[in-house]
Amino acid sequence: MAERVPGGVGIEAINAYGGAASIPVLDLFRGRRLDPERFSNLMMQERGVALPFEDPVTNAVNAARPILDAMSPEARERIELLVTSSESGVDFSKSISSYAHEHLGLSRHCRFLEVKQACYAATGALQLALGYIASGVSPGAKALVIATDVTLVDESGLYSEPAMGTGGVAVLLGDEPRVMKMDLGAFGNYSYDVFDTARPSPEIDIGDVDRSLFTYLDCLKHSFAAYGRRVDGVDFVSTFDYLAMHTPFAGLVKAGHRKMMRELTPCDVDEIEADFGRRVKPSLQYPSLVGNLCSGSVYLSLCSIIDTIKPERSARVGMFSYGSGCSSEFFSGVIGPESVSALAGLDIGGHLRGRRQLTFDQYVELLKENLRCLVPTKNRDVDVERYLPLVTRTASRPRMLALRRVVDYHRQYEWV
Amino acid sequence: MGEPMTDERIRGVVHQAIVRVLPRVRSNEIAGHLNLRELGADSVDRVEILTSILDSLRLQKTPLAKFADIRNIDALVAFLAGEVARG
Q1: Which of A17, A333, B19, B36 is paired with A174 by a 20 to 30 Å CA distance?
Q2: Per the database record, which ranges form the Hydroxymethylglutaryl-coenzyme A synthase C-terminal domain (chain A) (predicted)?
């Protein structure tokens, strides 16, 4: 099969959208009177915040649109599969992908669907899509996977409130993998039933913090071991130039790296710290400005590595995806100088820096509206004009999709 | 072979890990009915304490998830003793 795609398959383009606004995490700590000593383990600077006209559909479209704008009409026609992954569904039956398909102007000959498995779902979709592309059943086909979510956490979530993000990551897959050539066949899974975090209603996020963290760390160990059973001679340190891991908050990534290094290498504390700085820290820059992007998180970490390191030679990235519930996967791919130029035009860093920074009081005011985002409502209007001035107005600000109203449960959007 | 791993030696390993990760806690303050959260450990501290205990007791095969329902230090010591006995 692989000989049909001699250049390999993988990520052709990737873009992240981290919300229209942001709040400094230290301001959120002060406003909620959280213990400042815990700030350092969170390793966060800012957190993305949605405006009330944003929802999982707009996040998906606003993440993917810059990728499509840069493609020729012929190339866009080759997107034969659109998958949205989300734990923020807007309907039990109608998918986010159906709305996104419309507002992205994709072909009517494109297959679309939505998938759910907490923060793992995008990776599951990506692997299935890569299998489709690599199979050669439709040579030259492309697939678009979009991870999109919103946060429903308020002050009752304590320290998870400053860690949760909002937004989306769009990943275009195909046989011209300019961003990352995937190591096909190099993967390891570890999955089983556990109740660590869940969203049992459109208004409630629940979580057992310890169970979730412990499960994440067990899954990292076992999915990497499973990867090692498929790939000869794998070494946790020398095989991977960088590591991109699902980042609910950076402190957990650091704990995971430390645990793996202790168990798999003879490194002492100082060597482990140096290795973390060299191979893991570059992945945390963007997550520290956005917060947990759910199933898009590990791909935001990948963008962070590419934009931070700007690799001048080929480099292998080990990727770890974990979704509560739980399903996990360790996999890998190769980035290089072409990855840097492929990302440069989308300027993810510029978008994150350009978000309107909110005060704590503004944040609290918006939160009331944002918590209604997924609640089924037969009819409602969204006062877009009231919130639009909060979007940074610069000459280069691209148009963004906004939720305008809901009519008989049908969400209606417009470009603003 | 070293000395047998009694409950008291296991408790000593637990105390060592706690005071290393939480320097403000003294060993004599670690009452058996308290949990790690009550001793001031945040989630990352709790992970660090447990992984460090598992390292010291050479119990790396014990899944961390098994600790999610353990509610205090006494229960932690009893659980670890069972794991050590099982080898």
Answers
A1: A17
A2: 276-369
